[in-house]
């Protein structure tokens, strides 16, 4: 039997009585994480909402990513991913928040920031974890890989939050 998808695993962990909630802040995935989560009945028990902040102005004006981060480090940076996740967590009052920012291609790349470079962050009660990934393939493959890893991060965060302390 196949393992359940990440969104089904989240639902198994959080639906029907958990106090853990989460939100999303997405750029390069364009709402793909939120779409996958909300494809499962019962997700309204724990998914509070999401922001697709594709343009830098949206990252700054909606999510409150500091302009100096965008101007000095760029939208595709660990600092931006961290700020996006932390601001989404605060904005929605969620236990956890995940963010995605990267270069899905085929354009937009530089020598220092190639196509496939994606930063993901998970903000929670114990701090924020940022991951750097270099996904391969075309635009769809990079986006799909980023969505999958973001969902896996949420599962990991939910499992950690549910562990007795």
Order of helices and strands: HEHEHHHEEEH
Sheet of most strands: 5 strands, mixed
CATH architecture: Alpha-Beta Complex
Terminal-residue CA separation: 33 Å
Structure class: alpha/beta
Main-sheet strand order equals: 2-1-3-4-5
Approximate shape: globular
Percentage of residues in helical conformation? 40-55%
Q: Please name the CATH topology.
A: Maf protein
CATH superfamily heading: CinA-like
CATH class: Alpha Beta
The tally of structural domains comes to 1
Could you tell me the radius of gyration in angstroms? 15 Å
Tally the helices: 6
Beta-sheet strand percentage? Answer: 15-25%
Could you walk me through the main structural features you see in this protein, from its secondary elements to its overall organization?
With 165 residues, the chain is of the alpha/beta class. The protein has one domain (6-162): Alpha-Beta Complex (Maf protein), CATH 3.90.950. 41% of the residues lie in helices and 21% in strands. It has 6 helices and 5 strands. It has a 5-stranded mixed β-sheet with strand order 2-1-3-4-5, with helices on both faces. Helix 1 runs parallel beside helix 6 and helix 2 packs across helix 6 (139-162). 46% of the residues are buried. The mean pLDDT is 96.
Short description:
This protein is α/β, with parallel strands linked by helices. 41% of the residues lie in helices and 21% in strands.
Write a concise keyword list for the protein shown above.
single chain, 165 residues, alpha/beta, Maf protein, 5-stranded mixed beta sheet, 6 helices
């Amino acid at each position: 039997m196949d393992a359940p998808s990440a969104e089904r695993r989240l639902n198994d962990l959080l639906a029907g009585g958990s106090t853990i909630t989460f939100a999303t802040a997405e750029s390069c995935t364009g709402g793909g994480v939120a779409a996958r989560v909300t494809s499962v009945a019962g997700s309204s028990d724990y998914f509070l909402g999401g922001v697709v902040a594709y343009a830098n102005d949206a990252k700054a004006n909606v999510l409150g990513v500091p302009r100096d981060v965008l101007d000095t480090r760029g939208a595709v940076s660990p600092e931006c991913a961290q700020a996006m996740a932390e601001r989404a967590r605060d904005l929605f009052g969620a236990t956890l928040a995940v963010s995605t920012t990267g270069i899905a291609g085929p354009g937009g790349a530089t020598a220092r920031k190639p196509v496939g470079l994606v930063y993901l962050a998970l903000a929670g009660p114990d701090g924020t974890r940022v991951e750097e990934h270099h996904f391969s393939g075309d635009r769809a493959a990079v986006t799909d890989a980023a969505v999958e890893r973001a969902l896996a991060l949420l599962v990991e965060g939910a499992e950690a939050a549910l562990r007795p302390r």
